[in-house]
Structure formats: C-alpha cells, structure tokens
Specification:
Layout: H1 11-26, E1 32-34, H2 43-48, H3 53-77, E2 82-86, E3 95-96, H4 99-107, E4 111-115, H5 125-136, E5 141-145, E6 150-151, E7 163-164, E8 166-168, H6 169-175, H7 182-190, E9 195-199, H8 205-210, E10 217-220
Parallel strand pairs: 1-4, 2-3, 2-4, 5-9, 8-10
Antiparallel strand pairs: 6-7, 9-10
Helix pairs in contact: 1-3, 5-7, 6-7
Length: about 220
C-alpha cells in the first residue's frame, strides 16, 4: 500500500492493485482480500519499543481498517461492489465479520476485504489470511509480495539464492523458510489449502496466477 514510500498510503500503488483485482473479478472469480497494516503500524515494532504487545497489535489491526477503506474507495470508483468486514466491530465504517455474511457477499459477486486480522493480538495477518480462506471455502491462498518467489535464502543478501518452483508445507516448517508464520502454514497444511507466493507488484501477475500459469512458488502437501 505504501509503494516505494515505505510508510503511509500511495494512491498510485493502490490504483495499480485495484486494476489487477478488477481483471480477475471481471473473469468471474470470487475474491476475498486480507489486508495488513504494516505500512502504518506494526505491533511488533511497538513491542520492541517497550509498548505492551497486545496494545500494539490492536493498533496494527486498526491500521488494517484504514488500508481496507482506502482500497474499497478506489475499487468502488471502478464499479466493483466491495464490502469491508472487520473482526473488530466498528459499524459506522465496516460490517462486523460473520462467516455466512462473507460467503453471501462473495456469491453476489462482491469483493470482500477482511480487516482487523483475526481480532485477537499475537496473531499475524498471515494467520488471518489462512483462517479466512478456510472459512469461506477458498480454493487457493495467494500471497502477493515484493519478491517473485520463495528462495532458499534471502535474495537481497545472497546473489546465489535459488528460487523454489514448488515446496511442501513440511519443508517450509522444518527448514524455517520465511513464507508465512508457522501457525498459518500449519493451518493450510492441515486443510490441504495450496499457497502461491508471487510478486503482486508486476502488472498482470495476479491474472496469470489465477489462470494457472506457472508463476512464483507453489506450496502444497506434496511439494
């Protein structure tokens, strides 16, 4: 959401992201989005600075709502019916998260943005994404990042880093590969929900993944 700024909201970045989402929505794909708030505030940062971790996490959840509203605003300008469902109730600006309501919105061809994570401290956005994917019966979990795949080591620090085309959930957990946190990976593994990690910043990548083109890294039981 911050683009190259690192912090805050970059309208150009949101514009690009919503264009990508519109492309797959126009294909008839039901889209649920879990959005983070790291461009505004991170609970772990507050913890490192001596603030209570739970308070910091709640502040981070509120940041996700700001991002969700920004994303909703631009998407609706493009004619895409969008609903923000928040795990923390704030009825004036978002609907409370109810699983059946979320699935009903999806059936009506509305894009659903899930805000406030799980509504609980100590749980990451990754875990929220896995949980919501299970609840709505998603076929696949897409993690859009700044890198084009999962690597065996940090590609920024190591020029010889090798990307994985496929990797198993168990390998991710055992080797400590930095994809998503362990709770999120375990949840996907237990429910056999595949994950694709890809670079969402490159135009057309979201549509390519949805259309089944080999892109990024696929995380499955078999690997």
């Amino acid at each position: 959401m911050a683009g190259g700024k690192g912090l805050g909201i970059d309208p150009a970045t949101i514009e690009q992201l919503t264009n990508e989402i519109k492309e797959i929505h126009d294909l008839g794909v039901e889209v649920g989005i879990v959005i983070g708030g790291g461009n505004i505030f991170r609970g772990v940062q507050a913890d490192a600075q001596g603030m209570d971790r739970a308070s910091g996490d709640y502040m981070g959840m509120l940041a996700t709502v700001i991002n969700a509203l920004a994303l909703q605003d631009i998407m609706e300008r493009k004619g895409i019916a969008t609903r923000v469902l928040s795990a923390i109730e704030m009825r004036q600006i978002a609907e409370p998260y109810i699983r059946r309501r979320a699935t009903r919105h999806l059936e009506k061809r509305r894009v659903v943005i899930f805000a406030s994570g799980t509504g609980n401290p100590y749980f990451t956005t990754d875990t929220a994404a896995s949980l919501r994917a299970m609840e709505i019966g998603a076929e696949i979990l897409l993690k859009g990042t700044k890198v084009d795949a999962i690597y065996d080591k940090d590609p920024v620090k190591h020029s010889d880093a090798v990307p994985y085309k496929k990797v198993s959930f168990m390998d991710v957990l055992q080797k400590g590969i930095k994809v998503m946190d362990a709770a999120a990976i375990s949840l996907c593994m237990e429910n056999n929900l595949p994950i694709v990690v890809f670079n969402i910043g490159e135009h057309g990548n979201l549509r390519k993944v949805i259309c089944g083109e080999p892109l990024g890294t696929l995380v499955t039981k078999a690997g």
